[in-house]
């Protein structure tokens, strides 16, 4: 699959909750980073192995209820893609809805995601995870 197909497949599998299938798109090792407060949201941070990415998504899906997702754009140049969109998720620990724009940066080599960065409203995530 080409870079665009990998990125589209990534989001399709993620939206379906198919974390093993998402992880299958990731190289091992991988350079994976989602900036944020790991003490508040342990699914953010660095991962370097495929099984860590899979475990991270399993943890995320145990802690949120997806509310809304919209993909705006996927821009591809060679083996690099940037996806933008927005989402809303209910934080199960607090019941609060977290809404954010997102930008995901992918590098794909030989049909696998070798580098991933996700930018989202990390301040909003901390607020949503903080009890009232």
Automatic annotation (TrEMBL):
Q: Which superkingdom heads the taxonomic lineage of this protein's source?
A: Bacteria
Transmembrane portions of the chain:
none
Please state every residue range assigned to the domain named SnoaL-like.
7-116
The name on file for this protein is: Nuclear transport factor 2 family protein
């Amino acid at each position: 699959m080409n870079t665009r197909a990998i990125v589209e497949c990534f989001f399709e599998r993620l939206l379906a909750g198919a974390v093993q299938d998402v992880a299958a798109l990731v190289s091992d090792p991988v350079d994976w980073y989602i900036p944020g407060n790991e003490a508040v949201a342990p699914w953010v941070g660095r991962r370097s192995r495929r099984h860590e990415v899979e475990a991270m998504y399993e943890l995320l899906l145990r802690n949120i209820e997806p509310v809304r997702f919209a993909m705006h754009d996927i821009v591809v140049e060679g083996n690099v893609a940037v996806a933008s969109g927005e989402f809303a998720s209910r934080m199960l620990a607090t019941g609060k809805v977290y809404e954010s724009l997102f930008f995901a940066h992918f590098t794909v080599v030989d049909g696998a995601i070798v580098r991933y960065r996700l930018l989202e409203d990390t301040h909003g995530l901390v607020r949503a995870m903080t009890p009232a």
